[in-house]
Write a structure and sequence with these properties.
alpha+beta; four-stranded mixed sheet; single chain; Hypothetical protein af1432; about 55% helix
Length: about 290
């Protein structure tokens, strides 16, 4: 991207700092760190706030809404209290704490109800399958000009053509996307089965592949890598405290994750009946072998 940025007299190092924030391998000045946090910060980054409101609006759901006006009005640059240092960070006045709570709960609900909805997730898997077959060597071009030329329009047109022509690369995945023949969910991680075996999804997935074939079963697994509920709060006495110390609500925000097993729609009924009859045997099999 350096060639494109140089046309606008932009320094790639500055862009890297703003895009990566504290993950940037080099040192950041205080102002660079704050600016990066405003743009891509885990808690109050403009990007994160925008996608919740935008996606909530366009998906027609209320989960992602929060009082962003109040939140922005109460944002402050504060020392990182947990680290007992003067390194600046984005924080909030106590009057905006409930708005921050709403933001973080909105994020949790949007992930669990929308972003991790099984139908949305399986289309991600089918799209990845199509792109792996359709793109040269299964990868997007790294040349900036060619990369920018590969837009949604080109991908959607290629899906349409491949869906109607069995000889084109990515035909199977394209047909599933275009004709809504996507794989169906038939098992997901749950507390009852986890209490029996922490590897219950592994066991069901592998047993289903053995029963119905590797190509007929897909798995989608994701676990949040960490929480981002910690930020400084300026209380009414002018004392800076940590957010989780000030808010019992933030201490209760769960992490999010999914673990789904999908099946070819033509096999769904058979797979559902098989799972009802064999699930306990499949899950307990590892326990028996360990004994």
């Amino acid at each position: 991207m350096r060639g494109l940025w140089s046309d606008f007299k932009l320094d790639p190092e500055d862009i890297g700092k703003l895009a990566l924030g504290y993950k940037y391998p080099g040192a950041l000045t205080d102002w660079e760190a704050i600016l990066a946090e405003i743009i891509v910060g885990d808690v109050f980054g403009a990007d994160r706030m925008d996608y919740l409101l935008r996606d909530s609006h366009h998906a027609g759901v209320a989960y992602g809404r929060f009082d962003h006006h109040r939140l922005i009005d109460t944002l402050r640059i504060l020392p990182r209290s947990e680290e007992d240092s003067q390194q600046p960070s984005l924080g909030i006045e106590i009057g905006g704490l409930q708005s921050a709570e709403s933001l973080l709960w909105a994020r949790y609900l949007m992930y669990t109800q929308l972003y991790f909805h099984p139908v949305r997730r399986i289309y991600d898997l089918h799209l990845k399958q199509f792109l792996a077959d359709w793109l040269p060597n299964g990868k997007f071009p790294v040349n900036a000009s060619d990369h920018l030329d590969t837009t949604d329009s080109e991908v959607l047109a290629a899906i349409r053509l491949a869906a109607e022509d069995a000889h084109r690369p990515g035909h199977d995945a394209a047909k599933r996307i275009s004709h809504r023949k996507h794989f169906r969910l038939f098992y997901e991680r749950n507390a009852a089965d986890l209490a029996i075996s922490p590897r219950c999804v592994d066991q069901v997935f592998l047993a289903a592949q053995a029963k119905f074939g590797v190509a007929a079963v897909l798995r989608d697994s994701y676990n949040q890598k960490g929480t981002s509920h910690h930020f400084p709060v300026l209380d009414r006495e002018g004392i800076i405290q940590g957010s989780t110390a000030m808010s019992p609500t933030l201490r209760q925000v769960p992490t999010f994750g999914v673990d789904y097993v999908f099946i070819d729609p033509d096999l769904r009924n058979e797979a559902t009946h098989w799972l009802r009859a064999e699930k306990m045997n499949v899950i307990r099999e590892e326990l028996v072998s360990e004994e």
